[in-house]
Amino acid sequence: MVKFLDLGAQYRSIKADIDKAIAQTIEATSFIGGPDVRDFELAFAAFQSADHCVGVGNGTDAIEIAIEALNLPPNSEIIVPANSFIASSEAITRSGHRVVFCEHDSQTYTIDPADVLRRITPSTAAIIAVHLYGHPCDMKSLRLIADQHNLHIIEDCAQAHGAEFFERRIGAIGDIGAFSFYPGKNLGAYGDGGAIVTNDAALARRCRMIANHGRIAKYDHEFEGRNSRLDGLQAAILSAKLLHLNSWIERRNAVAKRYLTELSNVPNLVLPIVAPDVRHAFHLFVVRHPQRDALQAHLNKCGVETGIHYPIALPDLDAYRAHRGVNTPVLATEMAPMLLSLPMGEHLLEDDIDAVVRAIKSFR
Question: What is the CA angle 25-161-311, rounded to 5?
Fold first, then answer.
C-alpha cells in the first residue's frame, strides 16, 4: 500500500529528537506557557519572516482570534473563497460577521482577485486569503485591492507552512496570518495546535490577550477573552520538527515534480500548476478527473491511498443554505466532484511514486 500520509514513518525518522523534546518538557513540568512555547514562537516567527508569533490552541482559533483582534465594525462582510475547509468561513460568522463567498482560480485553486473586486461593498472589511493546498495566493493583487478599498487581509496559512510569494514567506504579507498544527499538516503537532503571525506589535499583543482570557499579567484581565493556548508539549514537538521542515518541503516539491512530469499526458487528468515566483509547500497534490470516483476506486484496488479535499463546496453545505443565490460562486461546486488528492509527503520513496504513476496510467 502506498500511504497517503505516514506520520509513523516521520516519527521514526526523527524519533530521538522528538523523544528528547517530550522528556525535557515533562521533566521541567512546563506544560502551559513557559520556555518551550516561548522558544517555539520565536523560532516560528523567524522561520515565517514575521516579527511576532502567538501560539494558540488550534488553527480555527487562530483565524477567529485574528478576526477579533482587527476590531472590525460589527456585522462586517469578509470575503472568503468557496473552496476551502469550513474553518475559513465559520470563523467569520462565529466572530459576528457575514461571509461573502467568492470564486477561486481554476489552476492554482487560490482566491480569484478579480472576483474579490466584484464582491466588495461598503460593508466589506476584510479578505481571507486561503493558501489552499500549499500554493500561495496572488498577494500582490490582493494587497492592491485591499489598499484601494481600505480592507484588511487575513492569511489562512493552515496548509502552507514555509510557502513563499516572490521570496517572501506567507503569513505576514497581509495584516495577520493564521496557522494550524493539526497532526497531518506539513508542520504538525501530536495533537491540536495553532499560531498567529504578524508584523504589527499592537495586533500581536491583542491576539495574545484574547487567547489568554483578556490579560497579559496574571489575574489582570483588561477584557473578556478566551482560553486558547499552545501547550508546552506541542511546542516542544513542533520546535523539533521545525528543524526538518525545509527539507520536507523540498522533498514534497521533488515528488510533485515527478507527478507533473510523468502524468502530463494522461487523458482527462488535470494537474495543478505552480505559478511563477512562488514556492509551493505541496501540503496536498490535487488533480481533477471527470471520473474521479472510478479513478479513486481503481487506485485503491492498486494499493494507492487517496483523499478528497473537499467533497462539498462551502456554499453547498447545509450550514450555508442562506448564502445561496444568484451571485453564489459556481467554480467550486463544478469542480468538487472531480477533485482527488494523490499521496504526498516526504515519506514517499521513488518506488512509491512509480506505483502511483503506473496505477493512474492503467486506469481505463
Answer: 110
